[in-house]
Amino acid sequence: MAVTPAQLQVPPNCDLTLGMVCIDKTEPGRTVWKVTAHERFANPAGTMQGGFVAACCDSAMGASVVTSARGRHVRVANAEMKVSFLRPVAPGAELVCEATVVGGGARVAFAEATLAAADGTVVARASSTYLVSERA
Considering the domain boundaries, does residue 1 fall inside one? Predict the structure, then answer.
């Protein structure tokens, strides 16, 4: 499906590819996601590739920034991101990613994410700066 600049596809193709499902977006600036670590995203060592982990965090944080816009129709672009990989993730692992906007204003937002295994063990933390712009 082609998306014109004025449209916003929800959920976006990246979330569909990763298998991410938003389970909570009731609080502006905070989202919670579930994802199963599919083996197609594993690295040669048999654990999840860092890009998969980073993409999960990025999607969750970006969605949190959108929900923080409080009635504004915005699009967001990641300007920079830092990810700390704390534990390896095995294929098949059930993961939960919680992302929160921690600061910013009308044009810039700062967000953080925690990616954890189903038992609560944190496997990664991320932080990012997003540029926020109005969309038609």
Answer: no
